[in-house]
């Protein structure tokens, strides 16, 4: 039997992974205890998504386990052993701001939880491909020291800089910078996943995501930029822009496009690899530009205000360079552009609010 195991399976990338791999594996095991509702409140609960997966996919089996518990995770791995061919580890505490409230919780979920998953894979399913969703926040605030230029609706990098054409590559240092508490816990997990590949020879990959988005995102104020922006555009709830004149730039990758990257890696895996994963020059926007697109799609004028203080360690301009991944897997490319993604989010969120 071929089994794919997905942590954070009711979240954005986790649920997309379940849907994608349910058609390619005999069984998909999901691990998710809805900690997102603890982090961000009832409005961010992923229970609706978990129920949908259980109803739609007969070969999906859900476990409400905590990735921090060796006992709970080892019990699942021991049951299926070598039949587990793929582990997609997406479960995380994903917010800068929330992490500062409870550093121990943040670190144990992001770092310790990842170690528990790695060790269980090594012990029970050593031939499995292990994929980890990291973050561009492992680079800390180093991108903020690039030569940036202020334009009418966005910050942009100087056109003479090597990063102008394709964005930031994997060679940027993850050292000597302010990461946020969240970024630091993800650095620990990121490096450990690399180490299990390099030291133990496991087939591991780190995907350093830009702004991951899609129609199944349970957006909240502290996490899920585009999903929360669209939710406010639909409901009329007030939105607050934090710093940088609302011109901060993010590249945005649709959850399906990211999971398709996972699929390409699974078919031809490497050991201890690192890839930047985002919308690149294909799909990106500033906060101001995102608001304008949401207003266009919804037909609503948004209610928003500006707060001068930016979030600590936040990026002013970040666009991912995917050249390395495209060179390794030349058949992969993006499927969903920014406006298509936001339109899907409008359709989905409108049904839930």
Automatic annotation (TrEMBL):
Name this polypeptide is given: NAD-dependent epimerase
Coiled coil (UniProt feature): none
Occurrences of domain NAD-dependent epimerase/dehydratase (ranges): 4-278
Signal peptide range: none
Pfam families: Epimerase
CDD domains: CDP_TE_SDR_e (cd05258)
Family, similarity comment: Belongs to the NAD(P)-dependent epimerase/dehydratase family.
Species the sequence originates in: Emticicia aquatilis
């Amino acid at each position: 039997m071929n089994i794919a195991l997905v942590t954070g399976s009711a979240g954005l990338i986790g649920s997309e992974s379940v849907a994608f791999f349910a058609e390619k594996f005999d069984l998909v095991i999901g691990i998710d205890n809805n900690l997102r509702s603890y982090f961000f409140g009832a409005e961010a609960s992923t229970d609706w998504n978990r129920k949908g997966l259980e109803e739609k996919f007969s070969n999906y089996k859900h476990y409400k386990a905590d990735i921090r518990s060796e006992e709970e995770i080892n019990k699942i791995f021991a049951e299926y052993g070598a039949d587990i061919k793929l582990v997609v580890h997406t479960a995380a505490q994903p917010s800068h701001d929330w992490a500062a409230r409870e550093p121990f919780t943040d670190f144990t979920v992001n770092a310790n939880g990842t170690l528990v998953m790695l060790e269980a894979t090594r012990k029970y399913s050593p031939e499995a491909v292990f994929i980890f969703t990291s973050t561009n926040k492992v680079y800390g605030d180093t991108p903020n020291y690039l030569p940036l230029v202020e334009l009418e609706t966005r910050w942009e990098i100087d056109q003479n800089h090597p990063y102008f054409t394709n964005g930031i590559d994997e060679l940027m240092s993850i050292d000597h910078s302010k990461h946020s508490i969240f970024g630091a816990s993800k650095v620990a997990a990121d490096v450990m996943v690399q180490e299990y590949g390099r030291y133990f020879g496991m087939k591991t990959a780190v995907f350093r995501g830009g702004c991951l988005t899609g129609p199944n995102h349970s957006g909240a104020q502290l996490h899920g930029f585009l999903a929360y922006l669209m939710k406010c555009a639909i409901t009329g709830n007030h939105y607050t822009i934090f710093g940088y004149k609302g011109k901060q730039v993010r590249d945005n990758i649709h959850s399906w496009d990211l999971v398709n990257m996972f699929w390409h890696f699974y078919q031809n895996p490497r050991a201890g690899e690192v890839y930047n994963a985002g919308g690149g020059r294909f799909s990106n926007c500033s906060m101001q530009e995102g608001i304008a697109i949401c207003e266009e799609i919804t037909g609503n004028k948004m209610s928003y205000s500006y707060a001068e203080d930016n979030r600590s360690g936040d990026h002013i301009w970040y666009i991912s360079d995917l050249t390395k991944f495209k060179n390794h897997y030349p058949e992969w490319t993006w499927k969903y552009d920014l406006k298509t993604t936001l339109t899907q989010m409008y359709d989905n969120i409108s049904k839930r609010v």
